[in-house]
Amino acid sequence: MTTRNRLAFPRRAFTLIEMLVAISILTVIATLSIAVIPKIKERTKASAGADNLQQWLLIAKQMALRDRTPTGVRLIVDNDGFVRTLQYIQQPDNFIGPALVFDPADPTHVTLPGVDLSGGLGPNANLWPVQSWVIDPGGLVLKQGDYLQFQNGPYYRIKSVNPTTGSIYTYSQMWLPPPQGTIPPGNTSNFAIIRQPRPIAGEAVLQLPDDIVIDYQLSLPNIPPVGNYDILFSPSGALVGALGNANSAAGGKIVLWVRDVTQDYPLPASAGSQPGDQLLVVVFGRTGRIGGFPWNPDPNVGGGYPYYYVFDPRNSGL
After folding, report:
1. Mean pLDDT, the chain, integer
2. Does the pLDDT value for residue 39 go beyond 70?
3. Does 163 lie in the same domain as 123?
4. Is residue 56 part of a domain?
5. Among candidates 307, 67, 25, which has minimal Cα distance to 200?
6. Which of 174, 196, 218 is the last residue of a domain?
7. Domain assignment of residue 218, given as a range
8. Are 290 and 301 in contact (CB under 8 A)?
9. 40 Cα distance to chain centroid
10. Measuring CA to CA, which residue among 234, 83, 126, 107 is closest to residue 172?
C-alpha cells in the first residue's frame, strides 16, 4: 500500500467512550477478583494443611526406612484441644545397664548404682536418656515417659528419676495388664528401660497454616485432650508404638480430621458445613500407606457416617 492510500484510509483510533467502557470492565473484573479470590484461598486452606500433613508423614516414613529406626511425627495438642504444630520424632534403643537393685522397703523403687541417668546432659529432664511420666491425680497423662521391664515381663511406667543416685521410682499401676502390681523382689540384670520417642535434634517444628487444625474430637482413635499423639513408623513402614497398637478402633487406620476453625463447623451434621472444606488424612496401620479422603456430609449416604469414604473409598470418586 502506498503512502497516499494510507493517508486516504487512516487507522481508526479508540474513542473516549470505548476507552471508558474498557476501563469500566477492567474495574469490575478487578473488584470481583478482590472480593472472590481471598474467599477461594480461605476455602482451600484446609486442603493445603492436609497436603502438608501428608507430606510430613511421608517424610517421617522415609526417614524410618533410611535410619532403620522407628520414626514418626508427634502431634502437639494445644490447651483448646486442637493440634496446630507437629515434630519429627525417633525412638532410641532400649537403655540397658548393670544389675538393678530392688528396694525391699518400697516395691516401686529400684536403683542403678553408679549410673548417671541424666546422661551428663544437665538439669533439663527432657534431655535425659531416661525420662519419667507426668500423670495428674485424675489419671490424665500430661507427659509420656519411659517404661521399666523385668525379664520380658510387664511394663512399669517410670514415675521419677534421680540421676545423682541412679534411683528410679515407678507407678504401682502396671501398664499392662491390670490390676495393680509391684516390681518383683530381688536384684537382676535381666531388665530394660523401654524408651519412648524423642524429638529429633535439629529438626524444626512443623506448623499447619493459619486457622487450620487437626480436630482431636473427630479423629480416630480420639486424640487425648492434652499431651502428645505420636504416629510412629517402623523401618518396614508399618505403624508401631502405643498408637499403632491402639488403632484397631478405627479398623486398623489412623484418621486425622483436618479443618479450618474459622469456617468449618466441628460436626458434619451442623448447618453450614460444606463438602470438601474438611479433609481426612489416613494412615493405614499394616502398610503405613498415607492417603487423603473426603468426609461424608450427606446423611443419605452410608447412613451419614462421616468416615464412610475412608472405609469404602470406591464410593468417594477418588
Report:
1. 79
2. no
3. yes
4. yes
5. 67
6. 196
7. 43-89+205-315
8. no
9. 26
10. 107
Instruction: Judge whether 10 lies within some domain.
Output: no
133 and 77 in one domain? no
Closest C-alpha among 196, 141, 198 to residue 171: 141
* Residue type at 75 in one-letter notation: L
Residue 235 maps to which CATH number?
Answer: 3.55.40.10
The residue with greater pLDDT, 303 or 312, is 303
CA 130 to chain centre: 24
Q: pLDDT at position 179, please?
A: 39
Mean pLDDT of 212-219: 88
145 CB-near residues (< 8 Å, 6+ apart): 131, 132, 133, 134, 157, 158, 196
Does position 72 have pLDDT exceeding 90, yes or no? yes
**Residue keyed to cell 504416629:** 231
Cα distances from 291 to residues 124, 237, 310, in angstroms, run 38, 14, 9
Q: What is the pTM of this model?
A: 0.74
**Do 183 and 215 fall into the same domain?**
no
Number of domains in the chain: 2
Do 33 and 41 contact (CB within 8 A), yes or no?
no
Q: Kindly compute the dihedral angle of the four CA atoms of residues 101, 106, 107, 111, in this order, to the nearest 10 degrees.
A: -20
Among 138, 168, 196, the domain boundary falls at 196
> 237-292 pLDDT, tens per residue?
999 876 666 555 455 889 999 988 887 555 544 545 454 468 899 999 888 999 99
Q: Report if residue 33 sits inside a domain.
A: no
- 186 and 219: one domain? no
**Beta-bridge partner residues of 215:** 82, 257
